[in-house]
Amino acid sequence: TRRIEKFCSKNEIPILGRIPYDENVVRAMIKLKSIVEFPSSKVGEEIKRIWMKLKLLAQNEDLHPI
Question: What are the residue ranges of helices labelled H in the chain?
């Protein structure tokens, strides 16, 4: 994690989020479902937050080129 953060900082790449460990990932895989379909999943919630940030960055691409 620190190496990734250091690389991003050095290359001016924004970190949109951090995906935590969550046992629901395995449960989702076993049930052939997406992790975002598990309402109590910390990973699912973080992925949704990251997706929203990414959408905002894409909408403001002219102001903040990636």
Answer: 2-10, 24-30, 42-59
